[in-house]
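sorry for the late reply, my laptop died twice this morning and i had to redo everyting from scratch. anyway the thing you sent over, i finally got around to it. pasting the sequence first so we're on the same page, its 201 residues, then the predicted structure underneath. double check i copied it right bc i was rushing
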Amino acid sequence: MATIDEDLNHLEKDIRQLKIDYEQYFGGGKSRPPTDTEWRIDTMLKRYSDRGAAMNYTQRFRYSNLAQTHAKYKEMFRKRLKQKEEGLVPRHFGAAAREIENERARKRAAQAPTVAVIQFPFAISCNDPDKEGEKVGELYAAFRAAKEMAGESMEKHTIEAFQRFVRQKTAQLKEQQNAHEVEYIVTLEGKRAQLKARVKS
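ok and here's the structure:
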């Protein structure tokens, strides 16, 4: 049986694929809309909307972002399908998708409070990441939010890889500088998300 994180990974992949399939459909490359993929996404979203208590902070944050993204795409696809059925010539889908993405980034700060309020710079201090899972989860959620606001991909930054990084970096800095705690800071600098680590004095 798949874990929650594995299901969310599949959900994220399906949402990306749905966008690609609709682009091909509206461009004439496919003969029918990707209703199977859309049904799979809706089923997964419904399943986890009823299982919020089973998810941790990071998973709920990620689920909320995926649900918001899909809702925006779904509305855009609905309008495009109506235009296609009525024989109207719509704007280029790629331009519309970019507009939706830009608007999503601008409104991210306003949307996030449904799960958590994240302000940048965001900082936490770690002594033992293995015993401070909630802190690491909050840091990961902040880093993911900053990446998305900056329009950067989080595909390679899984929660497992992030936890390993924090564990190794904390141990390294504590050993090198004989420190008790390491402070991690997430910032948005220009259009780039940054994660910095420093010994806390």
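Confidence is low (pLDDT under 50) at residues 89-93, 108-116.
thats about all i looked at so far, will dig more tmrw
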